[in-house]
Structures are given as structure tokens and as C-alpha cells.
Amino acid sequence: MRWDHLTEEPGDGRRTTGPAALFGADAVVTRTFDTPEFRGITFHEVRARSIVNRVPGASRMPFEWTVNPYRGCSHACVYCFARKTHSYLDLDTGLGFDSQIVVKVNAPELLRRELGARRWTGAHIAMGTNVDCYQRAEGRYRLMPGIIEALRDRANPFSILTKGTLILRDLPLLRQAAEVTDVGVSVSAGFTDAALWRTVEPGTPSPSARLGAVRALTDAGIECGVLMAPVVPFLGDAPEQLRDTVRAVAASGATSVTPLVLHLRPGAREWFLSWLAGHHPHLVGRYERMYAGGSYAPTWYQRQITRQVHELAAEFGIGPNGPGAARRIVTPERPCEPPAGHVRGEATQLTLL
Fold first, then answer.
1. With left for phi above 0 and alpha for psi between -120 and 50, is residue 3 left, alpha or beta?
2. pLDDT value at position 38?
3. What gap in Å lies between CA 52 and CA 124, rounded to an integer?
4. Are 256 and 318 in contact, with CB atoms under 8 Å apart?
5. Which of 167, 180, 299, 306 has the lowest tally of Cβ within 10 angstroms?
6. pLDDT tens-digit profile of 238-271?
7. Is the overall model pTM greater than 0.85, yes or no?
């Protein structure tokens, strides 16, 4: 691991380290909890040096900054593109990504400090674009309330993408934030097929539960879109599957639906193809041919899925998201610089697309 010289601390069940490469000089504390929801999961509690990370310049995403209070994700989605990030810590990108969770325990206080820095210009901050900030660990560590409060108090625009229904816990805070700034919420649900969900997203709430969260958010006045991701070739892309999913999205009250075909980056590609060989060996050759050109499915296929979903969205009456009328704090125009405490050379944020 990138924090070397890991040793046992006798008597209290914890292990601590010396200075860590990606985190502060404080000790890294490793914990396990003998409860059903956390059985088999190890948490590495760290004090991060910075929490607002710049998105790489080549990204297609419409934002520059992200906040990720966790590394690794117990959602255990076999296709997760963020798996590669665990290799930066010398952690396994397969089972290790699912069960070795890094928790930035100082995220709320650090974010509040970085948002208050003179150089910070109030740019949009995206959350959930790397690993899910409402994964099961959040139920114990409760980092998101402090993060949302910090953003609310600075009227800093932000967005959240999640597969976690735990976001409903923070609905009052989201409503407060939406009164003073732009708040965007999207829920990820690529399909409604229960059998597919149980095998490719085993640690997530069910698609129906996620769409139930969309309904609760929209009923509370928080506009919520659905990222229909991933559309899984040959397993979740049949016309009747796409129709069932878009119909369910429309019934949830979502303001928009955006399809995204499965992409397989290094780290995720190997893990997904291993899973595919065990569950659907007859599809391995088709996947190797479809993704022979790289991480993305062929353009013609992506366009075909997008066209089908857009046609279904029009049929079921899902409209586009419109800009809100939230207030903003006006700040002077300045060049966008890294926030206070940002460590140059730290691993960059992976993009969603």
C-alpha cells in the first residue's frame, strides 16, 4: 500500500501507519466492523491533504472540480470505471476495490476551509462521478451532511450522482441548499432487469428502490434526472428492456433521462471480462470484438442506443431539465486556481465519459 510500514497496534483492534503519500502526516487508522452490512469490508480512515480535485483538461464533463470523500466502493459494480484508482494505493482493483474502502474523515472540515480560501471562485463541484458518496459506508461515517452544509453556507453550486437511496436522509439539507444555489441531483439506473442487477451491481439498492428515491426527491421539490447507465450490450439493450426502463424512469417523475453505454477502461475491463467469462461465457468473444478499438463501444452502437432511448423518452413524456432560479453569491472574476491545500501531482479525478 502507498502508506508503508503497516503494523498492528495491540489491544485496541486498530492498525496505524506513519506519514502517507497521498494523505496527511496523521496516522491512517484501519478498522473492521462485525455487523452484517459491513462484514468483509475494511475501512482505512485517513486525513486528506485536499478534497477539491480538478478534473483533467481533456474531460468532456461540464465541470472542473469534484469532491470524493471515499475511495473504493461497496456497491461492487463489476463494470465500475473507477477501479483503476485503487492501484494508485497499491490496492487490488477487483475484490479490493469492493472491500477496502478509504474514508477521508476530515472531508467536511477540509471542504469548508477550501471553499473559504480567497483563490476559490465558487465553481460548480460535482460529487459521485468517481465512487458513490452514498455507498454503505456513508451510513456510518456521515460525511455528506457536513459537505452539503459547507456548500450551502457558501452558496456554492454542486451536483450529486448516486445509486444510493441514502441520499434521502439529507433531503432537508438539499432543500436548504437549493434555496441559495444551483443543486443538481441525478440517480444512476441503467436497467430495471432484477436478474441483471443482482449480478452486476450486487451491493446497490435495487433499481426500483433507486427510482423510488427519484420520486421522493421530485415530490420534495428537488428536480432529479436519471443517468441510464450503463446500458450493457447483449444483456440489457434489448428493445423491450430499454422500453421497460424508460417507462419506469418516466413513472418516477424524473426530469430527464440520459443513456450511457457501458465503457470498459483498464482496471474495469479485466474485472468485467472475468465476471463475463464466469456468468456469460458465450458473450466473451462478442465483447472482445465490440471493444477491440478501446474502452468504448463503437460509435454506431452508441448512437443507436441514444436514438432508441430518446424516442422512448418522447413517447413517455420525459422532458429536459431546465435551469433553476436559485440565488448565487456574486464573486469577482478571477482565474480558477487550485484551492488552498491542493497537492500538485496527486492522482487526478477520472471522468465519467
1. beta
2. 87
3. 11
4. yes
5. 299
6. 999 999 999 999 999 999 999 999 999 998 999 9
7. no
